[in-house]
Amino acid sequence: MATLTIRGLDDEVREQLRVRAAEHGRSMEAEVRAILVDTLSHPVPARGLGSRIHARFAAVDEGEFELPTRDEPPRVVDFDA
């Protein structure tokens, strides 16, 4: 078994951990182990940026947005100006 030391833990985070451990009837050390095991035993599948953007906006109704009509042709960009 490995030993892990966490330095620089914010006092507020430590207090939240203490309360959470007490709520679950565990020591703070046991609570940290439970959090790590729970978090790491269900890895998030790697997805690309496009997939994450799609998932974020998949529930948005397309009818909510009115796109303006294009009345004029696209302009040519002059990079020398």
TrEMBL record:
Residues 2-38 form the Antitoxin FitA-like ribbon-helix-helix domain. Keywords: DNA-binding. It holds the Pfam family FitA-like_RHH. This is Arc family DNA-binding protein. GO terms for molecular function: DNA binding. InterPro entries: Arc_rbn_hlx_hlx, FitA-like_RHH, Ribbon_hlx_hlx. Gene3D superfamilies: Met repressor-like. One of its GO terms (biological process) is regulation of DNA-templated transcription.
